Amino acid sequence: MRLLATVAAVLSLGSTALCAEKSNSTKPLTSRQILPANFKPPQTFKNVNLVHIINLEKSYPKESINVVIENTASTAQDEYFIPFTSSQMETIGGFEVKDRKDPDSGLFEVEAVEFDTESDTQFYRIRLPTPLAPKAQQTLGISFSYLSALEPLPKHVGQQESQYLVYTFSAYCPSTYVTLKQKTEVKFPSTNVPEYTIVPATAGESESPQKAGSKFTYGSFGELPAGAVEPVKVRYEFTKPVIHVSRLERDIEVSHWGGNIAFEDRFTLHNHAANLSKQFNRVEWASQQYYNPPSTAIKELKFPLRVGSTEPYFTDVIGNVSTSRFRSNKREANLEIKPRYPIFGGWNYPFRVGWNADLKKFLRKLKTGNGYVLNVPFLEGPKQPEGVSYEHIELRVILPEGAENVQYSTTVPLVSVEHSLHRTFMDTTGRTTLTLTAINIVDDFRDRELIVTYDYPLLAGFRKPLVIFTAVVGVFCAAWAIGGLDIGIHGKKK
Amino acid sequence: MADSGSITESFFKGSSGRNTRGLLRLTILSLIAAAAISSRLFSVIRFESIIHEFDPWFNFRATKYLVQHGFYDFWDWFDDRTWHPLGRVTGGTLYPGLMVTSGAIYHALRALTIPVDIRNICVLLAPGFSGLTAYATYLFTNEMSTSPSAGLLAAAFMGIAPGYISRSVAGSYDNEAIAIFLLVFTFFLWIKALKLGSAFWGALCALFYGYMVSAWGGYVFITNLIPLHVFVLVCMGRFSPRVYVSYCTWYALGTLASMQIPFVGFLPIRSSEHMSALGVFGLLQLVGFVEFVRAGVPSKQFATLLRGFVLVVFAIAFGGLVLLTVSGVIAPWTGRFYSLWDTGYAKIHIPIIASVSEHQPTAWPAFFFDLNMLIWLFPAGVYLCFQKLADEQVFVVVYAILASYFSGVMVRLMLTLTPIVCVSAALALSSLLDTYLTIKSPTEPTDSSADAVNGTTASSKKAEKAAKQDGLRSLSKPLVGIYTTFSKTSVVSALTAYLLIFVLHCTWVTSNAYSSPSVVLASRMPDGSQHIIDDYREAYQWLRQNTPENAKIMSWWDYGYQIGGMADRPTLVDNNTWNNTHIATVGKAMSSREEVSYPIMRQHEVDYVLVVFGGLLGYSGDDINKFLWMVRIAEGIWPDEVKERDFFTDRGEYRVDEGATETMKNSLMYKMSYYNYGALFPPGQAQDRVRGVRMPEKGPELNTVEEAFTSENWIIRIYKVKDLDNVGRDHASASSFAKGNKKKKTTKRRGPKVLRVE
């Protein structure tokens, strides 16, 4: 008997240790590495070949750098640095590094390092999972995007006019290392690119860019020293809304008793497209709706939800918005919402959507112990062809009252994690709440998973019924006791 | 059979029978409350949990303020977001009872960690209290009648009578939502106090009277009805220590309680509406004194003398009252009060009161619409009260007479009539049902006749008298066919049918007439599905999100509360209507030419102007239809500048089409309503679907304001007031320049040249 108990204890210890290890896979970016002010990345690498791809098809620039790096130092190295300007650092989001040759190996550990707040150059440090031996090569796939980096020009357009956006970048990919060969590809949403910087031809290199449809290529360029820049500005047509969510609060509430999981997303939505040059004209808008021309106004937002989602709602601060449609069947559950008015550039529209789902599809009980595993999408914002960017996401996972030992894991870069209690619906101690904060996320992260594991003892599940039962019995007893008291001022009549 | 008989016997007899009946009564009352609540939920089910109409939006906003900032801040609330630039001392000019009630419920639920949105509390407050009203009506009626079925019937009537539902559907978050409960409950407590002569019940009555004062301006009804009741009792020679104790307790405590409300303050001793209560209080002291003296000095002459003394004192007091009123110490009756006596008064002197539809005199069909069969049972019930005219029956009679009059004067006061109608109708109906259901055929018919023969003539006379007092003459001759099963079943089934029809009628009226939020409109699509027209909220949300937080909105006062509540923007005027001049200023800006309106709008820092236009959709409650009231109210202040006559054609028609007068066509309201409207139609085909007329080919032009937003169905149109021209031109010439018109040099080509000889 005793032996059994000991074995069980050892096993449970082992499982918690396992959980703890798992939770380490996601580390919040809160602690920025502070380096001395005179820090310079050691010149231990060189970029053998670099392809920089800038994708402007959505309402935010999405960049990816594929680079073959080679260790030039005499010892094995595992720290690779990428420079950014401090303004870029504020809006950069979704910074991820993978091994191009081995895409299944998972994401590398990255960290924003800070050495001098005044300096215009800041770094991201990539830690290679295995140190690279001298003279050895590795192919990195680095991807990230910038928020609020696109500027409409002109800043005011008419209701039916086309919108042009301006994006500034460097034709030479910023690097702290010597680059032997590189090129920069820019993908535009259309072929209409009225203005772009021309990089003149130099010895051995033809004039850039070369155009192929909606794709422009700068380079290839020969060997360039570390820190070389060549500013390039492009202005291209983008007659679509620039959807920006300055704040998204997402609540996921798990109810074991109800067998239900409730989602609620509260959006503070803005359109960063060019503002209207004149006031909104309803006649023009109504007459154009039959032709459905491209427009900078947000007319509709589509939320493809998980199959089986039910009871959706779409409200704003003054109540239900009746212009929404929900199509749900065995294959899809699409929530299509229409804001109360078309949202033009510079207009705002905060709203909330929510829905319920069957808990069984998201929650699994571990075979041993009281452990549960919850697997939910981190982000389920609108899926728009023009893309959506999120400046600040606060995700709250509200677990049942009494849940403990909460661990989580996600591939979304987080900035902070907080454990707290949330009191609601006759809770006595409050529900265990996990709050995750992420900044500068784009809708590419839409389908990322969040896995939360927790223990939920059986007794915790019975806490509320017991408390309510005791309280009601107490009230009855008190009523009975008080009712029996004689508080009259008359004398006893018996 | 015998077994079950004995079982029912044991259930309905003795102490367990009392328990069974109590349980049944409780169940029935709970069911009535449930019916009352659920029949008010049509709008929540059909639309959503939303605050209705106009005034509730202010109450809702005030409640949110109370919940957010706490009670003391609410008490001292100065609202600078209404009545710009004057502001409103909101904390001191509202009846806080409603908001405090919701706030208390909110905090109680929060303390139990039940996360209920304050909006849902506000929406469901009125249905919740309607359940309590039904219960209060039950208690009140039980005081009137010995038959408990009367109380239950009255509760059921009160629960579903449309006259009360009209002001208490879910979302109709107005003072009346709780006030009717308080009214009925205060009356119940009053009757209880009067019956028992108890200071305790009198104090309770005063407490609830104080609550009522804090909740609704209609408390004046109680303030006058209770004294009137007492006065009638005294005149009937029914003065007793019971009357004295209950009235004096109520008056002293109730007046003190009512003076705690800042909005009421010293009114109870300074305004004419409250003087009757004070007068009766004084009268009671005198009568009490006289009675006291008379008990000591049994001289008839002395009593007569005293009676004369009482009258003299009363006359002197009344004269003093008149004198004080004339000299201004006591505020004279307000205009609203005068309009209760002369229905034409408001239209002439205070158009702002007359412009509200609920202040109009009641049309006859409204009584049948709101009360259906109760209205013809009502006189029967009042008549039955004369049968046993105790003090409490006198109250019913007095209440019935007073409320009947007032409900005929103002549609809104139908609300105060409804409780007494329900009570009287229940009295009548229960007496009918009791008579026909429980009456047993006399087993020994000879017995009574033998009794009549054998007994003395006096006793037979007494019996006859008693029979007469029973009311139904048939009872005096017990052997007429009234005891037959046929007569019983026919009467009872007829009444049942009436009751069922009444339920149908109530449900129909509630569903069709009183359950529309009026913020959201419903229409039907061709396939029969419901289509919601949500223009109000579309425009208000646009204002809220896309204009600066301090942008001042000018609109007619009807929409002031909604703009404050939904758009959260400062307004010039709102439904509070405390400053007639300010409203008239807005009326003048709306009804004048642009050149006149623009300086007014600049002076009031107006950023946006909001108008409601129903021409496209056929929505008849729009601003053009309300326009004449704006003109009239403006004319009241500036008779020289705004004239109602100018808006009518020579033939006296109010037209908006080609034949409209120049004043009409040039008024800002007309221009804003129809600006750019023609562009929706093929040239020359523009139609106004409310007025049913074809609009002129060339629409109006606007220079000083520009269209900023128009809602999907054009119900709300928002205009931005232009800034001053950069180079100092007036707006008309600036926009004419922008269109490329040449500046007309009219001075040069006017007639033949004439040599000036001077």
Short description:
The complex is a heterodimer of chains A (494) and B (758). Chain A has 494 residues and is mainly beta.
How would you describe this protein?
The complex is a heterodimer of chains A (494) and B (758). Chain A is mainly beta. Chain A contains five helices and 33 strands. In chain A, the strands form seven sheets. In chain A, strands 2, 3, 5, 8, 12, 13, 15 and 16 form an eight-stranded mixed β-sheet that branches. An eight-stranded mixed β-sheet of chain A has the order 23-22-26-19-18-29-32-31, with no helix packed on it. The longest helix of chain A has 22 residues, at 2-23. By secondary structure, chain B is mainly alpha-helical. Chain B starts with a helix and ends in a 20-residue tail after the last helix. In chain B, strands 3-4-8-7 form a four-stranded mixed β-sheet, with helices on both faces. Chain B has a two-stranded antiparallel ribbon with strand order 1-2. A two-stranded antiparallel ribbon of chain B has the order 5-6. Chain B has 35 helices and eight strands. The chains are: A mainly beta (494), B mainly alpha (758). The A-B interface holds A 279-283, 286, 316-323, 340-341, 346-350, 423-427 and B 47-50, 112-115, 520, 532, 534, 537-538, 540-542, 544-546, 566, 676, 679-680, 706-712, 714, 720. Chain B: Belongs to the STT3 family.
